[in-house]
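Design request, tokens follow.
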């Protein structure tokens, strides 16, 4: 390179640097010039939905609508730094303006957010008050649209805030009480009538927030949306007498809804002192409550309350215990139970469980029927429990006696026609007990016991009464319909298995049966069919194919005028007529004269099968037709 060329290179280098920086600046201006201050970006549908539904309850952050209010009022930054001051300023602006419902919605969500963060209960209570004022203005024309997402959010904030504002110290229950309560902007006087805690000669205690409970073991969980905090309450007897008797199950839990009623809420919010009333409603079914001139549905969670009761119930422990020995060693209180008091005008549906089972096995069916407004508007569900190892005629006599006593007690003058249209439904052995409510046996069952007429035997009065009630039956006039589910009308093949027969040796009989048999054995033993066997027949013996009892019972027709329906379980893949459910053959469960027969593909325990439940519902609705 010559001196002149090097000299030229040195002269042009600054110029080239200027050109490079100019080019870089041009590129930057071009690139950044394409990114406008305002723009859009396409996002996926899931992101769209999350943005539309995000709020303090679902995402732990304020909803878009509340954030807009804070931005409009220049309170967004303050709420992040000092939420209590932001709430105070927005409340003050609402009081001075007293017309912006948007502020009420935002205040409800802001207070709940801060209550969750700080644990201050007065902010939960304030959230409930703001939400109530947003939902129920004095002027109904100013009510929010049900299509406004804030409408449902306000309902949920109100419901959850009541639960959390009245939480007991243990954190798992709610303490319903009146008194004076602080608010961020004053205080509120709440009235509560303690007499509302009385329920069917019992007192309601231990209120659980059922929205916080996870339900297991039931197919469906029913939640009826509305207003109020759904709770489950224990109903404790007021006296020892009530503890050992009564129609309602002793461990029953009652679904209730708590409502904080605030008169003229938007007007009251502008004041320092507010007043309200805390009310509780016994709501086993969806119903409404009057708020001003509006009928508003109550929030109901009956499934969770039902599951909570079953979880704490000893019913499951009694299943095998009730097979191997008698829980009631002698005749005691009625074995007919219900979840609610007797309700005139509703047709009883009596559910009778099967062998080594319990009323708890009806749980799924009860959950479905109890949450069907059409069914619940016309029927009431009762349960019959019994020791399933006892002789079937004896258990059937207890069922018949319990039903008869209930009719006499609830309708002594015969004025309730619904009570005389009773539906009795039995699963497995329970179906055999069910049949024995609607047959005329004459002396057919007795002939299996003795060759002599009962009148020729010199028996104790207690023995004669026991035998007559168990073996000489007339149809109960108030049983209008019977439903058989997987019922072994001609016996169960597993009852005849040798292991089943061995197991029956562990069964212990009630004392009245033992005394009655001892009385019988003092008669001419050559005339007693069971004397040679050396044992009292158990339910397993009764259900063994070919047993004289089951053969005789199968041959006795059901009384005319009784509606008869059969649901038969057959395992999947088996031919129906040659199939079985693992316990009962189709041919054993089949009834030639049934009005309807429905085959469900299932094992023996088919009460929770949705097809079984749907068929039961159909049959029940059939009973409503004239």
């Amino acid at each position: 390179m010559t001196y002149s060329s090097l000299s030229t290179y040195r002269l042009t280098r600054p110029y080239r640097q200027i050109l490079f920086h100019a080019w870089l600046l041009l590129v930057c201006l071009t690139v950044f010039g394409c990114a406008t201050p305002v723009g859009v970006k396409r996002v996926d549908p899931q992101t769209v939905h999350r943005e539309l539904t995000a709020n303090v309850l679902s995402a732990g952050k304020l909803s878009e609508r509340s954030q807009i209010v804070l931005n409009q009022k220049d309170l967004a930054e303050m709420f992040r730094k000092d939420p209590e001051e932001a709430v105070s300023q927005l409340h003050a602006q609402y009081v001075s303006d007293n017309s912006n419902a948007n502020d009420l919605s935002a205040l409800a969500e802001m207070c709940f957010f801060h209550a969750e963060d700080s644990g201050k209960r007065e902010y939960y209570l304030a959230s409930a008050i703001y939400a109530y004022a947003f939902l129920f203005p004095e002027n109904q024309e100013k009510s929010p649209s049900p299509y406004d997402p804030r409408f449902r959010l306000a309902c949920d904030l109100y419901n959850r805030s009541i639960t959390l504002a009245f939480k007991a110290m243990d954190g798992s229950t709610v303490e319903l009480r009146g008194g004076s309560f602080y608010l961020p902007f004053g205080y509120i006087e709440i009235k509560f009538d303690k007499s509302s805690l009385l329920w069917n000669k019992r007192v309601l205690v231990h209120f659980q927030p059922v929205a916080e409970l996870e339900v297991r073991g039931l197919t469906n969980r029913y939640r009826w949306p509305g207003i109020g905090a759904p709770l489950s309450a224990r109903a404790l007897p007021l006296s020892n007498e009530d503890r050992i008797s009564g129609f309602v199950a002793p461990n029953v839990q009652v679904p209730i809804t708590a409502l904080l009623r605030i008169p003229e809420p938007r007007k009251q919010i502008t004041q320092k002192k507010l007043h309200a009333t805390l009310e509780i409603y016994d709501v086993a079914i969806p119903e409404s409550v009057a708020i001003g001139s509006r009928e508003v549905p109550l929030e109901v969670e009956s499934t969770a309350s039902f599951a909570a009761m079953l979880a704490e119930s000893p019913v499951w422990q009694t299943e095998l215990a009730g097979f191997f020995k008698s829980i009631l060693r002698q005749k005691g209180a009625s074995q007919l139970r219900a979840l609610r008091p007797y309700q005139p005008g509703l047709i009883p549906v009596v559910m009778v469980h099967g062998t080594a089972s319990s009323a708890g096995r009806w749980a799924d069916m009860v959950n479905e029927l109890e949450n069907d407004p059409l069914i619940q508007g016309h029927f009431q569900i009762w349960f019959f429990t019994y020791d399933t190892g006892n002789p079937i005629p004896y258990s059937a006599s207890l069922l018949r006696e319990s039903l008869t006593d209930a009719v006499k007690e609830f309708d002594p003058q015969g004025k309730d026609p619904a009570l005389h249209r009773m539906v009795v439904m039995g699963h497995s052995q329970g179906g055999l007990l069910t049949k024995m409510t609607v047959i005329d046996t004459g002396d057919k069952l007795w002939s299996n016991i003795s060759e002599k007429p009962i009148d020729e035997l010199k028996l104790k009065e207690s023995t004669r009464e026991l035998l007559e009630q168990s073996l000489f039956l007339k149809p109960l006039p108030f049983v209008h319909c019977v439903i058989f589910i997987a019922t072994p009308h001609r016996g169960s093949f597993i009852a005849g298995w040798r292991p089943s027969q061995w197991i029956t040796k562990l069964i212990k009989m009630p004392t009245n049966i033992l005394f009655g048999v001892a009385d019988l054995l003092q008669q001419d033993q050559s005339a007693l069919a069971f004397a040679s066997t050396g044992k009292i027949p158990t339910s397993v013996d009764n259900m063994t194919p070919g047993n004289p009892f089951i053969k005789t019972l199968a041959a006795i027709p059901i009384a005319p005028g009784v509606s008869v329906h059969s649901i038969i379980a057959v395992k999947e893949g088996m031919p129906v007529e040659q199939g079985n459910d693992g316990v009962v053959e189709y041919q054993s469960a089949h009834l030639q004269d049934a009005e309807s027969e429905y085959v469900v593909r299932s094992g023996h325990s088919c009460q929770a099968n949705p097809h079984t439940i749907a068929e039961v519902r159909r049959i029940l609705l059939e009973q409503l037709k004239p």
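Comment from the thread starter after seeing the answer: thanks! DSSP finds 23 helices and 16 strands in the chain.
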